[in-house]
Structure formats: C-alpha cells, structure tokens
Amino acid sequence: MSALTYEDVISKYEPVLGLEVHVELNTHSKMFCGCSTIFGAEPNTQTCPVCLALPGALPVVNEKAIESTILIGLALNCSIAPFSRFARKNYFYPDMPKNFQISQYDEPICVNGYVDVEIETDEGPQSFRIEIERVHMEEDTGKSLHVGGSTGRIHGADYSLLDYNRAGIPLVEIVTKIVPGTGKYAPEVAKAYVAELRDILRALGVSDVKMEQGSLRCDANVSLRLIGSEVLGTRSETKNVNSLRSVERAIRGEMIRHAERLNNGEKVVQETRHFQEDTGLTRSGRSKEQAEDYRYFPEPDLVPVAPDAQWIEKLRAGLPERPSLRRKRLQEQWSVPDKEMAAMINADVLNIVEETVLLGADPTKARSWWLGEISRLANEKEVAITALAITAKDVAEIVSLVAQGELTDKLARQVVEGVIAGEGTPAQVISTRGIKVVNDDGALMAAIEKVCSEQSETADKVRNGHLPAAGALIGAVMKETKGQADAARVRELLLGHLGQA
Amino acid sequence: MIKNSAAEMSAALSSGATTSVALTQAHLDRISEVDGKVHAFLYVDTQGALEQAKKIDDARARGEKLGPLAGVPLALKDVLVQKDVPTTCGSKILEGWRPPYDSTVVANLKNAGVVILGKTNMDEFAMGSSTENSAYGPTHNPWDLTRIPGGSGGGSSAALAAFEAPLAIGTDTGGSIRQPAAVTGTVGVKPTYGGVSRYGLVAFSSSLDQAGPCARTVLDTAFLHEVIAGHDPKDSTSINAPVPQVVAAAKSGDVKGMKIGVVKELNGEGYQAGVRQRFEESLELLAQAGAEIVEVSAPNFEYALAAYYLIAPSECSSNLARFDAMRYGLRVGDTDGASAESVMNMTREVGFGREVKRRILLGTYALSSGYYDAYYGSAQKVRTLITQDFNKAFEKCDVMVSPTSPTTAFKIGEKADDPLAMYLNDIATIPVNMAGIGGMSLPSGVAPEDGLPVGFQIMSPVMQDQRMYSVGAALEAALLSKWGAPLLSQAPALGGAA
Question: Considering the entire predicted model, what is its pTM?
C-alpha cells in the first residue's frame, strides 16, 4: 500500500471536525466535597467519604466551580441557562468510585457560543469561527495504574493500583458543534482553537491549563467526506491529545488514515482511538459501534442550578479582555515587532512585562529584561520564569535606577542576579553587595591621580594628545573603583586631568 | 422501667431516680433476654452504649444542661452509618464494614446525649415490607412471633414493641417506618422530605428516602423528631428552614376546628375489615375531640404504586452501583488472574439478595435508552400528578388520613414468593413519599378478627409536620382513655412459636 500524502487527502476529501476539551478547574476544593485538589500529593491522601463513594455520603456542589463554568461560558459567547441540572452517567469502572459520574446531560449550564480563531494561510491571516454547542460541569475520575502486561491497559495487567486523589476534581467539558469548511487547514485550525481556549481560560484564571499535567485535555473527532458531499462520514474520536502540537498531528494523522481506508474501499470504524506521542499515530481503543448506554437520569442528590441573573451580569461585566485582542493592543501600544511579540508569547512573559510597564518601566526595557537576562537565568535554573524570586516591581525599580544613572547595565545585571538568588529587593541587594555607581568626583579624581602616577608613561602619551591611550587608563580606574564608576564620567574627568578636555 | 415512655425515663433521669447506665443496662439485659426470639438487632454495641450512658451520667452529675432525651437508649436502623460500628444495611455485601464517619442523624443523636444501643435488622437496603429480605434472617413480630414485624424497618419497630428500646430510628422510602409501626402497635413518623438530613443514610432511592423517629408514644416520637431534624449543609436536598414545632403540637394535642380529610381512594376494597373498623372508630374519636371530618379525593393515587416501582428501582440501580468490591465490603473471586470486572460481577452476584437484584434489574431496564421516557419519564409525571392531588386536597383540609396498611401483620413466608402481593402493603404509604410530605402512623387498636394491631395514618403538608403530631396526640389520648392502658399492654408476652 502506497502511503498517501496529505495533499492527496485534501485534494479529494473535506475533513469535518468536532472537538471536546476537558478542563480541570483550579478550585481549591473538589466538585462535590471539601477535599484538596493540589496536584501530585501521595496517592489517596486527598479523599473523604464523598469522593470515595462510601455508603451514605452525599455530594454538595462547589459554588466556585459553578462560577468558573459560567465565566467560561460567558467568555465563549454562550447563553447561560437560567435552570440546569446535574445528571448521572452510569457505567462501571474501578477508578470511578460511585460507578456513575455526576455530569450534565440534556440541561447543561452554558449553550450556543462561539470562538473566532485566526491562522496564517496561503492568502494571509484568515479567521475561522468555531461554534460551541455546550459547556457543562462534571467530575473527574480517579487514576488507574495497570501494572504488568504489555499494553499498560486493564486487560492483561497483573494488577491495578487506584489513586482517588483526582476523583471529584471539577471538570468543565467544552464541546464544539461540527466544524466543517476548514479544508486543508483543519489541523491548524484545531490547534489554534485549543490554543485560544487555553489563553482564554488562563486569562479567566479558572484553570492551570497545563496540557502536560492533564488539566487541559482534548478529544478530537475527525471524519472525512468527498469534497462537495453533504453527507457526514463516519468519525473516529481520538482521546487525550496532550499538547497543542499533538492536536495538529493527531488530526492530520487521522485524516490520512481515514483517507487510506476510504480509498481502499474499507469502512471507517466508529471508535475511540488513543494518540501515541512517539509515532504520532493513533491506536484503536474500544469500539463505539454498539453505543454504550449510560442510562442518564437527573441526579436526585443535587438540586438544580439556577444562577441569579444579576450575578451572571456581574460576572459578565468583570470578564477580562479577550486574549487575542489584548495581544494586538499591547503590540501596538509598545510598538513591538511581530517576531519579538511571538517570542514574548512563546516565553509566556506577556503578563509580567505588562505588569512591569504598568509600574512605570519603559516597554522596550521591560521586555528586554524579561525576555533576555531573566529568561536566560530561568533556563539556566530550569524553572518557569514566574517561579523565580523576582517580581515585576523589582524589574521596574531596576529599570528606573538605570535610567537615573544610579546603576549601569552591568551593575543592574548583578542586582537582578542577587534578587533571583533570594538576597532581597533590589535596594537590599545594592546595599548588601555594596553595588553603587561611584559618581563622587572626589573619589574618582583620587583614583585617576593614583592610576596616572602608577602609569605615568601612558598618562604622558595622553597629555601629548594620543587619545586612544586613555582607554587603558579608564580601564584601570574602573578596576580601581570595582566597576562601580560611570565610565563616561571617568573619561571626562581623566581627559580634563590630563589637559585634553 | 423499660416499659415506660422515653419522656418518663427522661423525667426519672432528671430527678435522679435512675441513671443512664442503669437504664441502658436494663435495656441491654432485655435484649439478651428476648432478642434470641425477636431478632430485632443485627449488632448490639454494649460497650459503646454503656460508655455514652456513663458520659451522660457524669455530665448530669456536673450539673450540665442536658436535652430531654439525654441518657435515653435508642435502636438505630442499620442503614444509617455510625462511626466504627458495623453497618450492613441487612446485606452480605457490606458484611464487616465499619464506617469511618457518622451520619448527620447519628451526630445529632450523640450531641443530644442519646444512647445508641445497636443496629436493627431490616430488609436488605430497605427493600421490602416484612424484614424477610434481610441477609441475616427475619425479625419476628413481638405480638406473634410467627408473623412479620413489617418492613423494611422491622427491627426498629420490633425493638420498640418488645421493650428492647424506648426510641428507634427508621427510614421510610415507601412506608418503611409507618407500615412496621402499624403492624407492631407503635408510632412512626416520616418527616417532610428534606426535614432530616440524608447524609450517612445509605441510599436506596435518593428522592424518596427519609429518616424519621419511632417510639411508643406520639410525644416521644416528637422529642426524637426535634433531635434529628434540621438543615444540614452536607445534604443539598435538606430544607433550610426552622424545624416544625412538633413537641409543642404533641403536648397540646389540640384538634378543635381542624379539618381532617379522609382519602376516598385509600379505604374500601383490599382493606381488611378490622382495619377499616378501627379506622372509622378513630375518625369518630377525632370528631368528638372537635375536628371536622371531610372527604377528599386523590384520583391519581391509583398510579402511585406503579410509578414508585419505576422511580425507586431506577435510583437504586444507580445508588447500589458503588458496591463493587473495590474499596470496602465483600470481595469475592479475587484469585490470581481474575479481572476487576469478574470480581465485581462475582461479588455482586453473591453479595446481593434476590429482591435487591430484582430491583436493580427493573431500574436498569427502566432507565435504558429507548425505555426511559415510557418508564422513568412517565413515572415522574405521575409523581407530579400525585403532588397536585395532595395540594388540591390540602386546600380542603389540614391533614389527610387513611389506614396505614391494608392488613395486619401476615405470617412469615406467606408472601415471600409473591412480590406483587408484598408491594401492595405500601399502597397507602407510598403517595406520601412521592409527594415528599410528612406521614405518621400510630396504633388505632387491634383488629377483632386476629387480635393484631392496626395503624392509623396521618399526612400533613410539606414542613407542616406539627399538624400530624397535633392530630396524632389527640387520637392517642382519646384511645388511651378508651383502652385504659397503652395498646402494647394488650400484646401477648412474646407468644407464638418462633
């Protein structure tokens, strides 16, 4: 079988997408109990009768999770239902303590929204509208670790370990309507959509949106139809695609796989598939030909969610600026070239640069500190830039000291290093390290006189008008003053001293 | 001493005539003496009960202010969790499980200083009307040990009738407090749904389950009601409103000017002659006490039983899914190479009894795709109609009344193989659960044809529970003056062959 190229696929077929994104909210407590949600704790230490589904335990809705979900719905231009209900989704699995998941079914909290995403096409930037069908709340399951066996799956495992710390973490599921009309850009549009969602969720502050930790997970539904056809093809659902790049790869891979089957006269099987990071291919999971019957019914342990209209309006009024618009605004305000802007976004320093600028720093200087020296130190320490012990306020202060001539660029780097090393605020670092621009002319003159007498031959050359020789003397003076002098001032005073001013 | 009411025991404790330890020991002795025949208890917490009794005696000695039921013993239905005390729900699947937490009802009892003697027998997961569905063997009716004590809370009602405890907690999903009360000659109340927290009540049918007080007098029941009721943030369906003043109502027992609605549809065909006779007599007594008797109609009650047997099994099929051998309780078939799925299957096969399996199957079917609308959906519509019937009727009366159960206690084994006949026991009690209102059963005498107790049911609107206590107390007083002694004094002393 000759491998199809992507170009072969798109010349014949139109892809239709459907994306389901699961977001773990960053509430302090779980969806239906008071247990902590902190990631990475010892297994089964963040559990209680409710999230372990002990007999008799009852769920109580986390109000903060409802607020977060409404915020997401509003940010995605959805209508917020005045009355929505939780439902039980019944199926047996060892990592689901109740053997049903509390979710929402036919009465979700947010419906009918959209997100516009922009991608670079052959004809320049183009915007695509992704329509949102629903945003609903549910709870996460526990985690299974299947030990032994070759597949890492429950079948064939020697035994399985269960960790219920994740059971009951609030999840929001964002489901698109079908997305036709993206043609060959389908993989890029999907990636841009997930990236835009990530940015929106981050701006809302409702989730950590860390795809690698699973706090943002994407399931991609892909089907193909012959170009011009109105009939939808059979779809596959690729689960747990855990990076933006993988979203693109998974969809591209599925498009090729579907096309190969269709070209060979085979049927696409409606099934769940698992994305494999190493190969970029998907592997068959359980078949969905016999659709599972989840026996949904309204959750009798919870009362319906009926958010107050005034509250919704208050939340709407407090929505943050849409990330894509904000990026455009900041780029204009700061006159940042496209490439630099992209670098800031990639390095994830946009927020902190803005914060620094709002504290009075010059945008170019603020950007260059965060993107340059501080990023370099973060890379060196292999930590996130926000994990460093330096704040926007510190950087703004340092920028201001340089502007006032209180620090040279070189000294400023020492201060930055000191702040990051935990030596305190810039002022504290300057004082304990004794960093100071020597601008006391008396002290400088003493050093100049000392250097000129030590290096009298060089001094004479300068006296005789050979100005390039001054460089060596200035260097010596700077050394004498431990680099704390302003080199320009030293030059000025030196030349005056030697009668060359 | 053990034949006194809880109110009398409380007075004796307050006056120093007795101690809680002595009172508790007397009940423990009574349990040792008779429970071999009655089998009301699944677990007797001798040590825990005596420790709590001692604590209360010490507190009283220190002059601490104590509630009216402090130091009085109680029997707890085994469907409510109590920390470190085995809770089985009458099922093999929970054998040996000791809960790590207290239900809110138990926490309230402990705070009130009530002494919990142990856990009482019940139909498995509260599914049944005779306590024959307990995996640990049936409970026997103290009036006639060959007969059932009602169900599902037969252990609690039998414990009261056999003087093993003056107070008990039951739970009522379709009549499991009221029908056992009726057939044992005791008092039982299902409060308004949401009046008592369900946190720690092992769910059978979440939208119908309600824990409630059981005792031998209306006033004792009221005292216990006020101890366990109240808003609980751990139960979302718990009502955030003041507890109805049921003790005051039970004390005054005033029915002058009250309108009592007799439900046309809950009397007549299918009701035993003696049951109807006692019901009519009680109506006369209430009329003599100053109440006005009116007839009300509830045309949709005839669908209540059918709708109930769709809603309750549907919810139970989901509620009981958690019993999967993974985290607690029984585990069967966990041999080398066995899959989680096969362990779940085998455990549920062995751990659940026939009636529980029957209802899980019924409910699973009713919720299945393609059947949901016809079964679960229609049943919910019937539920709305029943609520509307009650609302309309309560425009014409303050409380509604009926016989609690169509018959007196039947023989153990008599209906065990006929689930439909068994389900009919609850025909008069189920509508109350469907509408979420309050219901009480109190003794109205014995049926002349078999000498067995008959129950009188009083139904009151949502959060108007005090009304049924007023009527109950008035009727109880009238009957007492007619009989000259409490009905239970007519009970044979644990006669009949067990």
Answer: 0.87
